[in-house]
Amino acid sequence: xxxxxxxxxxxxxxxxxxxxxxxxxxxxxxxxxxxxxxxxxxxxxxxxxxxxxxxxxxxxxxxxxxxxxxxxxxxxxxxxxxxxxxxxxxxxxxxxxxxxxxxxxxxxxxx
Length: 111
Hints:
Blueprint: E1 2-12, E2 20-28, E3 31-37, E4 43-53, E5 56-66, E6 69-81, E7 84-92, E8 98-110
Antiparallel strand pairs: 1-2, 1-8, 2-3, 3-4, 4-5, 5-6, 6-7, 7-8
């Protein structure tokens, strides 16, 4: 399934972050992929795996486009409520600070 999404996030981490994330997301079985405007105001691709239990989900994978490395790991967990997903993810900056990102992702269109 292909989705056009728009996410809004809040970073509980020092720094100046982009908090609006338009993107495209694809999911097939346990695999997921996405292209989106990331928190560092750049474009990222993401690829990984998704697990579901009822309306709960967990994603794990890798994404380029961040200052922390050529490719950085990601983890996102949340609740999927038809056209809205609430999520939380761990975060770190290049100064070594550790925090979290909370957000909401709206599904604008599904194909």
